[in-house]
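=== RUN LOG ===
request id: a7f3
mode: sequence -> structure
chains: 1
length: 97
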Amino acid sequence: MGLWGPVLHFHANTEALSLLSNAAKNHRAVLTKHEIVLDYLFAAEGGMCAALNLTGSQCCVLAPDPYDNITKQVSTWKRPADGVTAGQIEIFTSIHE
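=== RESULT ===
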């Protein structure tokens, strides 16, 4: 695989991490919307937590958003590999299959 092997794996890993980061951001948005809808539906009972007799940390729905941190880190990793073109990756991938 030579020198290009690690470069190709590195590129694939950073792309995969970017995709996972975007997925986490989208899941967080969906969870937040669901929480808002449930609070609306249970508004007459004092909200979702009151209706389900949840208190403290049981009630708190926290979906952390790692998107900004992951995106920043991936962009830092990609800088040295920015000179590698898609054509070069395709050529070296086909050679080493």
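=== NOTES ===
Residues 4-78 form a domain with the Helix Hairpins fold (CATH 1.10.287.210).
The mean pLDDT is 76.
=== END ===
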